[in-house]
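Schema walk-through. Below, the input block comes first and the output block second. Nothing else is stored per chain. Lengths vary across the set, and this one has 299 residues.
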Amino acid sequence: MLDEITMQRLSLIQYIYESAMEESRKPEPFGLISILKFHDSVELFLDLACDKFGIPAKKTQQFRDYWTELEKHLQNQSLSEKRSMERLNDARVSFKHHGNLPHVSSIEKFRVNVTDFFEENTLLIFGIEFSKISMTYLVQNSFVKTLLDEARELMEQGARGKAIDKIALAFADLMLDYRRSAITQGHRSLFSFGRSVRNLTSSDVNNNRQLAEFTQKVASSIEELRESMGILSLGLDYQQYARFKLLTPYTVLYSGSEHYTVVSPTEAGHAPSLEHCQLCFDFVVSSAIRIQSTDLEVG
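--- output ---
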């Protein structure tokens, strides 16, 4: 059983790897930067492996030394992808220190090589599949983390309806927590974007039916704009957010309640696929990490 610190470090490695994968798919020359992140993720993994076996840093001064030292502890087993990782290291040095741009085809090869490296060596050294590492270890909000952990367990059990409900609640509470933390001394949220008009009713327009319908449409549109502005202001991926909203149930924060509630729990027959559940899960985790990295100081 791995300790929590090790799992946190593995989660960070996975996060950097996922970031590199996303970067690598960008058009040239922007995708070339991924080579630095790929290398960082691999080197952090090798450092963690050395810590596991008590190998001091002075014995791994050169990149190839990792293989020499680690294989002394692997009982006649070998770390995979040694040659391809040496090529990655050479390409990284050539790019970062000498300004030689790697060819786009090299990026495609490294994408495959690094994936194979993690899938084979994580199980070998840490006894866990790389795909099973949960990045929820990086989520600082304990309530949101618990909801995500519960959602992950439900997905593994095939309970997609309950899982997507948990995921929806996790995101709603994540955003609620951030809005509350972004309140200034003047008791104004920096991410409210105007006063809410959600509770505007027909009684406010003297029971004129057409005017009431128009008012409700305007109010609904304004609420959607306020919500969208909040997402964009935090630097979250709006396209992913739009897909998330389509796949997840509606949540509401009732008066006097500390946390959101799903209005209508998702029935098993109407739940998204496991793939879509995973996409929503990943969006919430990446959003939490993004929000945590936002240093907002209000006096």
